[in-house]
Each structure stands twice: as structure tokens, then as C-alpha cells.
């Protein structure tokens, strides 16, 4: 069974490869801001962070299926996975910091405290030349940074550039691994794709998870 990843995220690709899965990657083309605004207008309220992650994951997966699935180029024969992640501290969504000064301020804010990471997933079954079914799930984990981190350590980390394009501004599988004191939940969820959630979705759609493992 082939898995198609509606993402070009190196972190998500790394998680899957580490789990014995070699996906085919497609870059989704989604106007996230406009789509979220439309969904919130439809609901008459703001989406929660878990709802946002699943909704964006769904949009990404559906876009890839529309362009490359049975009614598109026909390249896809397997399962299509879309995902999105959001990190919250004090109920505030902290996206990618992009700038060093923002990354440093956020890391100091997070120091000695616990944040929440939501990882949304949407899986579409596109096997045997048809779009058959879809299912979604959100997994959640908490991340606590060490309280004794010195400003110099945080400054050195930000200077590497690693946290600038990461939701929450840290990577547990990278240089910040030594700064993270505790994780509650699936470690893969914190990286951006929950393997336990993926397994449950694969089973929900009637397939066997080991079928995704590369030969």
C-alpha cells in the first residue's frame, strides 16, 4: 500500500521514513487564510486549534487528490495523508517565528513551562482507481522546556536558524532535544505527524497498517 503525503515538510517525511514508510510527496496548493475564514463564516464562530489542524489537513489532502487522484492526473493509487500542527502556550497559537528575535522571545516565554501541540490528520482512500472514503483525527501532546535554560543557550539555539520555520520554535528531534524536559503524548505528534493517529486512520479505512511499510 502506497502512502502519498500532501506535504513537503522535512519533519513529517523524516517521521514516516523512521517508521519504515517511504511516501510519495506532493505539495498542496491551498489558500489557508481564505479557506479558514470561509469555514469560520460558515460556522459562525472561530475554529478551535484542534479543529484548525484537522481542517487544514483535510484541505491539503483534498487538494492533492483533486489534482493527482482518480479525477486528476491519475498518479495516485493508495492513501493520501494531509496534516497540520499548531503549538499553543497560554492558549495562544504560536506559529513559525520566522525571525530570530521572535524565536528568542518565544523560547524565553516557554522556558520552564508547558505548551500544547495539536497535530491534525486527514486520510483519503484512493485505491483501485476511485476515491473511496476519508477519515480525520487530531492527536495532542504537551511539551515542557527545562526551567534552568540560560539565555545564552537559547540565543545559541536561535542563532543556528533551526527554530525559525518550526511551529512553536523548537525541534525535539534536533538541537533543542536537550532543552525539552518532558513530553506527554506521542513523540511523533510533537514533530508534526502522529504515527498512532495514522495507524488508527488506516485501520478505520479498512486497511492494515503494516501494509505501508516499505519492502
From TrEMBL:
Keywords: Cytoplasm, Hydrolase, Nucleotide metabolism
Subcellular location: Cytoplasm
Gene3D superfamilies per the UniProt record, alphabetical: 3.90.950.10
Domain of life: Bacteria
Enzyme class: hydrolase
Main location: cytoplasm
Active site (UniProt): 84
EC number: 3.6.1.9
Catalytic activity of the protein: a 2'-deoxyribonucleoside 5'-triphosphate + H2O = a 2'-deoxyribonucleoside 5'-phosphate + diphosphate + H(+); a ribonucleoside 5'-triphosphate + H2O = a ribonucleoside 5'-phosphate + diphosphate + H(+)
InterPro entries in the record: ITPase-like_fam, Maf-like
Family annotation (SUPFAM superfamilies): ITPase-like
Cofactors named for this entry: a divalent metal cation
Main function: Nucleoside triphosphate pyrophosphatase. May have a dual role in cell division arrest and in preventing the incorporation of modified nucleotides into cellular nucleic acids.
Family the entry assigns: Belongs to the Maf family.
The protein, known as: Nucleoside triphosphate pyrophosphatase
Organism whose genome encodes this protein: Leucobacter alluvii
